[in-house]
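Sequence only, no structure available. Ideas?
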Amino acid sequence: MHLLLSLKRFRSEFPSSVSCLTLFLTIATGLLLGGCAASQLDMSVKSMVPVPPNADTAEVPLQIVLGVDNFVDLRPQTRGSDNKKWMGFIPGILWIEISSDIPEIYTAFSPFNSRPFNFNIAKAIADITGQSGLCRTVVFLPEDPYRHIDYRLEGVLRRSLVKETSYYYGSGIYAWVTRILGLPYVSYNMELELDLRLRSMTTNDVLWKGAIAGTREDKYHNVYGLARGIDGKHIIAYNFSQIISEQLPDILSGLRKALENEPHE
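Reply:
I predicted one. Tokens follow.
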């Protein structure tokens, strides 16, 4: 008799259990598809490099043509898959730490499918220099290689390090459930090192040298923050552009002083 009562109770509760499971799966699927359907993020650094309001540029543009060449890539040639610092299980938590100096080829948690990073940064520097009003014309030489120029801005990209650290809660299928719910924690540490020099095309002399170097840190407590990016940009592109933007006033000031000391027709 007791067995019959138990079977009847199970049958009465079974539909509600199935309904709860169906509801959970529907919500989880909706969240997952919503994250996957996020709009395509901007991978370039140029649009997020505003003209600094305190940039020391000439009121009247110098009557010269400045060319910006593609920067030489001297970064350590290690990918994240070759530079995995540590990976292992803590009970209930998966901790992964990976670093890469070539983020456009390999990132672990948020794909950064940009153009080669040396090209990306050179294009950004060319655009911001042109917008600053420093000189009459700024030419990005990879796009217009036969243009006559008076001076050339050259660069050497030495580091574009992206260090990613992630904590996943649970293991096996439970790790995917927490990912759908947006729980994994991801932090980024980024480092940029770039050397610049200004060369006269008449004498081939180097007239000025400068550098951009800095670090930034960013943290996300759910995967949907990564999917949204910042101001429509991929978070890696955004943070590198901020490193560049913070140091542009000194770069533009140094370029202006070097160019003003040169004789112009």
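The first helix runs from residue 2 to 36.
Hope that gets you unstuck.
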